[in-house]
Amino acid sequence: MTMRELNVFAELMLHDRLLKAIDKLGFTQPTPVQQAALPEALNGHDLIVGAETGSGKTLAFVVPMLQHFLDAPAPNTGTRGLILTPTRELAEQVCQAVKDMAAYTRIGVMTVCGGTGFKEQAAEMRKNPEILVATPGRLAEHLERQTLDFDDLEFLVLDEADRMLDMGFRDEVMAIINVCRAERQSMVFSATLTHRGVRALLPEVLNEPKELILNTPQSSQEQIRQQIILADDDKHKERLVEWLLAHETYDKAIIFTNTRDKAQWLAKSLQRQNRRSGVLHGEMSQDERKHVMELMRSGKINILVATDVAARGLDIEGLDLVVNFDMARKGDEHLHRVGRTGRQEREGLAICLIAHNEWNLMASIERYLRLEFERRTIKGVEGSYKGPKKLKASGKAAGSKKKKTDSKGSKKTAANKVRSRDRKQVGKRRSEPAGNSAAPKGPSLGDGSMPMMKRKPKPQAD
Ligand code: AMP
């Protein structure tokens, strides 16, 4: 750390009441994202920050917002600060962080999310809390019905902007931004700054922003061991989960499935095994979700089966095991899942259970993350699937596509298919040989075939 870097909150010249709150929370040292963002934000700059949940990013926008409101009291205005988050759970979490930080002030905050009665919500908003933490859908509804306005808004935050857009909230977010007062300070947080939707949105939200990148997909996982275990099918995966939960060392674990039905099925199976477990998915009511989260936070249960939507942005202390019962469908989703563990200098373990139809997805996620998951087998619970016999250079399974035969019964191989195209001189551009779409675009041998590709060695079980 250089002399110019911050090492204590006190050096930020924060208001005494905020320092007292920080002290009560037991925070002595700003996290890297706080070190980078707080001085800039306290100076009034707009920011775009690349940081994940778990990095301490919430305080990086809550502290400057509260400091600003304490510096310039404005008792008779409407909403002064607005924080948009992708999910209700994250909104609740952020709202709690605001309450904790504003504990010694009179600044009020409320969440505006779906799942709560519209009228009750509107009534509470009339009490005029300075800060709203909202999900875009419900907030846009309030704007439509003219239950609130943002003419006095001084501070706008888009938290987890990439997810908000991935969840399809672009129109709502735009509608909200369009009615916010133009003279304001704004901050955008996103796990990935290369997200095209986020990039396109920035000029609409920020004014001469500073860009702070605190993590890359690769660096955010340094503390996490990532493994794969091959599996035959869901029943086999169920046995693997049973073994892992019985033999791994962990405080709390989260198991991801890709569908609600599977989450429920697995949760029931765990309950039959007398595991202290719960389930969290998008179709549950707000109260049900809250209840499960409380059980998990308090440690009454220590295993959560969840779908992606439900688990977005959750910050659960002591979570050190992530099991992907189903492989995430995209690299970013995988990152968000494994990012639930390995937080705040803790070591985490993330294990993906891979059936044959998930191999290629797993391989493409490895490429995206530029790492190779550790291959692991568990004695006594091995299945019959041993991974693809041959691999392409990309790490995907080779020759997985069925070969078609032509009318004469001879096999239509990639090479002779291209040759017949050449003979007939159909079209000017030569198509790539089938099944080699991920092959390097090396020189052609002149007869339409590709040079022999280097194969990756078959993965070894450890
Ligand atoms: P966040 O990324 O904002 O969700 O924060 C992740 C966790 O880090 C939360 O439980 C915070 O309470 C905690 N946290 C935030 N700032 C600090 C800090 N400076 N020192 C220790 N823990 C922190």
Word description of this protein:
The chain has helices at 16-25, 32-42, 57-71, 88-101, 118-125, 136-144, 161-166, 170-178, 196-205, 234-247, 260-272, 286-298, 308-311, 331-338, 359-369, 414-424; strands at 47-50, 81-84, 109-112, 131-134, 155-158, 185-190, 210-213, 224-230, 252-256, 277-280, 303-306, 319-324, 348-354, 374-376. It has 462 residues and is α/β, with parallel strands linked by helices. The protein has two domains: 3-213, Rossmann fold (3-Layer(aba) Sandwich), CATH 3.40.50; 219-375, 3-Layer(aba) Sandwich (Rossmann fold), CATH 3.40.50. The chain has a seven-stranded parallel sheet with strand order 3-4-2-5-6-1-7, sandwiched between helices. A seven-stranded parallel sheet has the order 10-11-9-12-13-8-14, with helices on both faces. Helix 6 crosses helix 8 (170-178). Mean pLDDT is 82; it is low at 1-7 and 403-462. Bound molecules: adenosine monophosphate. The site of adenosine monophosphate has 14 residues, from helix 3.
Low-confidence stretches are 1-7, 403-462
CATH superfamily of the largest domain: P-loop containing nucleotide triphosphate hydrolases
Instruction: Spell out the helices and strands N to C.
Output: HHEHEHEHEHEHHEHEEHEHEHEHEHEHEH
Oligomer class: single chain
Offer a quick outline of the entry:
The chain is α/β, with parallel strands linked by helices. The chain contains 16 helices and 14 strands.
